[in-house]
Amino acid sequence: MRAEPPPRSAVARARGQDGPVETAILWHIGPLIDDVEIAQVHDLAAAAEREDGVAPLSEQPLLNLRAATDDVVHLLTWRAGELAGYAQVDKRGEAPSAELVVRPEHRRHGLGFHLLGSAADRAAEPRPSDPDHDRDHDGQPHPSDHDHDGQPRHGAETDGEPTRAPRPPLRVWAHGDLPAARGLAARAGYDVVRELLVLERPLGEPTVRPDVPARVRLRAFVPGDDDAAWVAANAAAFAHHPEQGRLTVDDLHARMREDWFDAAGLLLLERTPGPDAGAAELVGFVWTKIPAGQPDGAHEGEIYVVGVVPTAQGEGLGRLLTAVGLAHLADRGATTAVLYVDGDNVPAVRTYERAGFTRRAVHVQYARPTAR
């Protein structure tokens, strides 16, 4: 029987610009140990958001705090009795991705740089879920064949043994495109590889619900009955999207457990069957989100995701679903609508601009240039 690896291992000590900083960076695979540790990460993220005006961790990393998967790695470092820095590496998908945050009062000492370096080390290691993942006889992963900065270590190959295929380069999200994040990326040799736009528009009164064509019908999601059908339609609509397209039923259920989830806000568009046809076909959906606990005077809603399956694209259903989502948010009392869209998705950006959206912010994803 193969032994399990220990939950935590010290991997580095940070060295600030003015000398060594005696703070170990620890890591373990998910989920986090207990509710106390999860609360510490949320407190750290909240402190950074108050300082920076933008949340440092997006929804998926926060959901991953409880995810029972060995393909998520948590990196933590404490200073003066509090969690000073946190990073997360998610090895699922085609390329590993990471997000990190440092508590404001512990910045400018090199901690972010070393968290990023440790994250790159973890990303370079094989995924535990890979069928050819090698372990020593005691269950421990083999030492990484990469230096602390994530680059291949010279002499890592062994005579007569095939070398392991390298993992794709780590991609790191920086929310808000802040100057400090740009400086850290430049110091570590990372370039921008992707931009995620945050768009917004006001919601006015009265709300005019768009007409739904006779060939389709709109209805609310039914938890339990529609789970598998929604996951299949989402996978088809976002087959080439690095995150959205790989959502599973478990991922759907994790979102359904969040305090913002409302089944009435997930609207399904079905193609009505003919007289002799079978069941209705799910061809699109719009999922809206109204976050709980918003500050006084703010009532913001999100067009969380709009999807149309490939066989129904080009029929104007994306515009229809966007209008339906905006009307639903307005009916629920939201005064501002926001959404996220990839900057290089020109058709979608144009659709949203025609719907009255303007740019609020941008999130940036970085990666090291690949060797040629």
UniProtKB/TrEMBL annotation:
Binding site for 1D-myo-inositol 2-(L-cysteinylamino)-2-deoxy-alpha-D-glucopyranoside: E59, E243, K289, E302, Y340
GO molecular function terms attached to this record: mycothiol synthase activity
Binding residues for acetyl-CoA 2: 306-308, 313-319, 345-350
CDD domains: NAT_SF (cd04301)
The keyword RNA-binding is annotated on this UniProt entry: no
Keyword Repeat belongs to the record: yes
Annotated binding of acetyl-CoA 1, by residue: L100, V101, V102
Known catalytic reactions: 1D-myo-inositol 2-(L-cysteinylamino)-2-deoxy-alpha-D-glucopyranoside + acetyl-CoA = mycothiol + CoA + H(+)
Domain N-acetyltransferase: 34-219, 216-372
Key words, A-Z: Acyltransferase, Repeat, Transferase
Feature: compositional bias, Basic and acidic residues: 122-164
Pfam families named among the record's database cross-references: Acetyltransf_1
EC number: 2.3.1.189
Function: Catalyzes the transfer of acetyl from acetyl-CoA to desacetylmycothiol (Cys-GlcN-Ins) to form mycothiol.
NCBIfam families (UniProt xref): mycothiol_MshD
Subunit structure, interactors included: Monomer.
Similarity comment text for this entry: Belongs to the acetyltransferase family. MshD subfamily.
Alphabetized HAMAP family for the sequence: MshD
UniProt protein name: Mycothiol acetyltransferase
